[in-house]
Design a protein that fits this description.
By secondary structure, this protein is of the alpha/beta class. It has one domain: Spore Coat Polysaccharide Biosynthesis Protein SpsA, Chain A (Alpha-Beta Complex). The chain has 8 helices and 11 strands. The strands form 2 sheets. An 8-stranded mixed beta sheet has the order 1-9-7-8-5-2-3-4. Helix 4 links the parallel strand 2 and strand 3. Helix 5 crosses helix 6 and helix 6 packs across helix 7. It is globular. 44% of the residues are buried. About 12% of the residues have low confidence. It is found in: Membrane.
């Protein structure tokens, strides 16, 4: 049912490809190229309520609080009844973060949708028992331990690629990659869904590309030239259609392997490869830093709501190589 509706959506949409417009009828629907607003003004179609740009220069929605109607957009997607996969890696001492992540996700993450949490871990016995809502479940997958945190973050691209091939492809329509050391604080709903959704990194959404921590060494597969770049995206939250995510996850894995053959590691591991991919394969929706903040930072006035935030932690204690 979801696939049929999605196929119709991709072929029947004839409306404007600008943030804020939603066109829907019995015969014309595009749920992944547009999103709901309650009678927006022309200005609201281009700007959020705090003056933020609400559309990218390639006409993809840039999602902020106040630029969508949460009731309407959730109701529309619920009619399609999509299956959602959330992949998290909890290796070593990071299993301690599972309880907070899962319990808060059950309160705020796509509530009343079908969700499977795929937990990749080397400590199955440490996966907590969590009361889940209807249609939601946990699947635990074994992965080996690692001696460097850099290997942990790079390996999740490998294990996600393998898991999609072996299992997840048959069980999900959308897939999100998320960091487990995070907690949800507010609604994270269907406005986040699109063929490929990326989240602006909280540290760089107000800066120009000259300050983005792209990989600048030409010997790395993640290299981005100094005169190129749209945004800097975080690798802690990203999602999209299962097959679009598979292409991106596999790309990050394969490019990291190529770098390893040449004795180089991208400056920010899979995040560097993610940013290169998204520069040349534009996301269909960009989510504001509301969709991944950090407890290390004060919340500025333009962030009206923190939907999910990374926890403060002692990296030297939780990381296998002491955070180095």
């Amino acid at each position: 049912r979801f696939t049929q509706c999605r196929r119709r959506a991709s072929t029947d949409f004839t409306g404007e490809a600008v943030s804020g417009l939603f066109h829907c009828s019995q015969t014309r629907r595009s749920l992944d190229k547009c999103w709901a607003l309650s009678r927006p003004s022309d200005a609201q179609r281009l700007w959020g309520s705090m003056g933020q740009l609400a559309v990218t220069n390639w006409n993809a929605p840039l999602v902020w609080e106040g630029t969508f109607d949460p009731v309407v957009i959730d109701a529309i997607y619920k009619r399609l009844d999509p299956r959602l996969a959330v992949v998290v890696l909890a290796v070593g001492k990071y299993t301690r973060f599972l309880k907070g992540f899962l319990e808060s996700a059950e309160k705020y993450f796509l509530v009343d949708f079908r969700v499977t949490y795929y937990i990749f871990t080397d400590n199955k016995q440490d996966v907590p028992k969590i009361e889940l809502g209807t249609g939601r479940k946990i699947t635990v997958l074994d992965v080996p331990s690692a001696t460097r945190w850099q290997d942990v973050v790079l390996s999740r691209m490998k294990w996600a690629t393998i898991a999609i091939d072996n299992q997840i492809r048959n069980e999900a329509d959308y897939l999100f990659m998320m960091d487990v050391d995070s907690v949800f604080h507010s609604r994270f709903g269907a406005e986040s869904l699109s063929p490929l959704s990326a989240v602006l990194h909280r540290g760089y959404y107000k800066t120009t590309r000259n300050y983005f921590p792209y990989e600048r060494r030409g010997t790395s597969k993640a290299y981005i030239p100094p005169d190129e770049g749209d945004y800097y995206y975080t690798a802690a939250v990203w999602g999209g259609y299962l097959e679009e995510m598979y292409k991106l996850v596999k790309y990050c894995y394969e490019q990291s392997e190529e770098d390893a053959k040449n004795n180089i590691e991208a400056v920010w591991q899979e995040e560097s490869h993610l940013n290169r991919y998204l520069l040349y394969n534009k996301p269909t929706k960009v989510l504001s830093p509301e969709y991944l903040w950090s407890d290390y930072d004060q919340v500025p006035a333009d962030i009206r709501v923190v939907r999910i935030s990374q926890l403060v932690k002692n990296y030297a204690e939780v990381r296998p190589n002491g955070g180095q």
